[in-house]
Structure formats: C-alpha cells, structure tokens
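Hello,

I think I submitted the 6-O-phosphono-beta-D-glucopyranose job twice by accident. Can you confirm which output corresponds to this input? Input:
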Amino acid sequence: MKMTKACLFDLDGVIVDTAVYHFQAWRRLANELGFDFTEHQNEQLKGISRMESLELILKWGNVTLTEEEKIERATRKNAWYLESVMQMTPNEVLKGVPEFLKELRANGIKIALGSASKNSRLILEKINMIEFFDVIIDGNNITKGKPDPQVFLLGAEATNCKPADCVVFEDALAGVRAGKSGGMRVVGVGDPKILHEADFVINGFEEMTIDRLF
Ligand code: BG6
Ligand code: MG
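Support: Only one job matched these inputs. Its output is below.
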C-alpha cells in the first residue's frame, strides 16, 4: 500500500486563483510596449517564474530589452500585480481547499507549499491560509524553476518525507512534470486534457478526500 506522509501544494491555481491578476498586470506591460496577448497564450505562463514569463511575453511581442530594462519592467509588473494581491480576501480561496487541508491535518499528514511565486507568503496571509502550512518553499528558495523538481524536493526534505511518500497538487503542466520527475505522485487540478501526465486529475477540491491519497 502506498503511504502518504506529506502533501505539497502549488499556490497559484490550486489554493487560490491569481492567474487573472498576473494576466492583467502582464497585459498592461505588453500594452505599454505596444502589443497584446491572449488568455490562451497566458496559459503558457502558469507555473513558470516571473523572469521566464517576461522572456516569453517579449518574444510574443518581438521586443528586445537590455537586462536592466527587463528587471525594471518585471519590477513594474510586480507592483501592479501586488495592487491586486493587496485587495485579496479569504473569499478567494478555492472551494474545498480549507476542508481538505483540515482533513490532512487531522490525519497527521504534513502540508507544504511548493510555488514559483516570490509573493507566496503575502498571498497566504491575505487569504488567511498561512497557518495551515508546515513548510513553505517558494520562488525565494529555488534556483531552478518547474518543470525542474527542485521546489518539491526541497519541500519533501523540509517535511522529512521521502518523495515516494509525497503527493503533489498542481494546475500547470510544468508543475505536474516537476512532481513526477521528483518521484512523487501527482494530482492534477483542472483540465485532464492538459494535465494527463498526472496520476489522476480533479476538477476542484470539493471532490478530493483523503482516502484518494492511498
Ligand atoms: C507561479 C505562477 O505560481 O508564480 C506564475 O503560476 C508566476 O504565473 C510565478 O509567474 C511567479 O510569481 P511571482 O509572484 O513571483 O511573480
Ligand atoms: Mg499553479
């Protein structure tokens, strides 16, 4: 029988839906540079770091910037993004998440965050979820972004659990791949067509119970 000793959660798109705020802020930046991109293109930005996102967007717009200009633009985008984050409330926590985390807790299963975001602590505070997490590994702790497994391997290590005893929850293909290549079981959250490399896919946490972990 498989053991589950820790669950590792992505943040954006799993605990809370911040993708729309990222999209609005990146779009504002693109518009300033004289082009636009679609919600469909925005899908490719899920799970990847701030600077990787900027590189892709600049490629879409055929815009070249110096390293210094890139940092300046990314900083501006983040300031706009944070204006939205500051308005967030606990109402934005995705359905079924608090109930599932409470169930994990009641059963002694460790809870860790494994996110590419450098804003994860602030977001968790805004939505009143920070105290659920035993461990937080985010964009401030990693040198390699998803699909590299680093973020989840560090999470497993910090919970003192072997990768095989961990289950990852992810809404992005890059994140599903990160979990799988780290030797973990992965539950996709979202579209089964996009997340088919996961062990199984749920639509949302209302349909997730602890017995599905084993
Ligand atoms: C991920 C998001 O969680 O964090 C990405 O899915 C985002 O879209 C990345 O680019 C980095 O976030 P931040 O908050 O550090 O800019
Ligand atoms: Mg995500």
